[in-house]
């Protein structure tokens, strides 16, 4: 081999191991001998947080019949996903929610002097704190409880709001409920909030509530929510952290991909998926998460961790352009891959189901379909595939293929490497590639892919061709528009 060819081969190898985890490089058309994915078990990235596998419980939608005190449809589904945390009582309902005076009307506040109790729901139609704790303990997940700040400000009853929060904490303590994570209101910046706050107003409430709450339990971790802007337009978040940072353990942002413009065609042409939309010129999810650390350094509060406790696809421009159930699942898998790759601390998917959207294809992006007797949507299969990665050691994984996104974890207990490969590359069907391995002696490989079914709507898991070429090389075939889970035994 002449010197020029040696130089080119070395350059390709260097690029493979030093390309950013979420970035890909365009390659020439693949053939059976091209090894475009590199995995290095010696380069550990950190433990994948079990709290990434989280979901929102919207208290007013959670009927007893779906939970059955830890043995119903929803608990069994969450167990299959290796769920790490459940957020209760949900999003905007928390700033109208009174834990000891529930009404089942999620967006109606019974502190309102004009409140009409005639429409209150029977207790079987919603979930109270005791039922929530029974269910979350049966699943084996961490609880996360919300605190209502909006009602206190709106009705000039701030001290009553603080007393209500303290009473809830004391109740949990008396009942033996171990609750570490507490989130303080929800989207307080939003015009749809019960009371829309400035960063200064929100910070003031945090500084009032948290000391009172920590007087009951000093070991809690508080979660504060501001908007989704991290890399730019982050002045509000920085102001909030600068004022109340000592009382904040976790900052959460809400990410709904391409809200109002979400389509499958837009996704397959996004390399990679990003937080950018009509309101915000954001970066990819991976890069946006990475930008949180320098933001904290600017505020002087580097102890704060990052979460996305509401995330999903956004609604589409029209019913006709709404991604199918399978397409939605595939799109969600890329968001989740970026969360894992960036080392995000916590995430809670929104939402499990939305019964009021019973005539809209927007239900495709949830876990259950209320138009089909709450049958599971394909998204549940995606979360099941990723469930095994929770709590495992992430190792370096780099793809040179444009449109193939990857993340790899090492399972020490089973002595095996697990690689997730999302293929949205539209140039070759199927796509043949190889994996170069370091730090493992590959003995056996299996691969299964989640692909679209013949009906074009749902999905199915199929066995994918994969072979061990040598102790450090594996070959496989990736179906177009698929999520593949590769397991390599050491």
Percentage of β-strand residues: 25-35%
Low-confidence stretches: 1-31
| SS-derived structural category | alpha/beta
Average residue-wise pLDDT: 92
Describe this protein with a few key phrases:
13 helices, ten-stranded mixed sheet, eight-stranded parallel beta barrel, single chain, 28% helix, alpha/beta, globular, 490 residues, 20 strands
Q: What is this structure, in a nutshell?
A:
With 490 residues, this protein is an alpha/beta fold. The chain has helices at residues 3-18, 64-67, 73-80, 129-139, 150-154, 158-175, 199-216, 235-244, 264-268, 285-290, 292-299, 325-342, 379-387, and strands at residues 35-47, 54-56, 85-88, 142-147, 181-184, 221-225, 250-257, 305-313, 346-349, 368-369, 375-376, 393-399, 404-411, 416-423, 431-438, 444-452, 459-463, 466-470, 473-478, 482-489. Helix 6 runs parallel beside helix 7, helix 8 crosses helix 11 (292-299) and helix 12 packs parallel to helix 13.
Summarize the structure in words.
With 490 residues, the protein is α/β, with parallel strands linked by helices. It has 13 helices and 20 strands. It has a ten-stranded mixed beta sheet with strand order 17-16-20-14-13-12-1-15-19-18. Strands 2-3-4-5-6-7-8-9 form an eight-stranded parallel β-barrel.
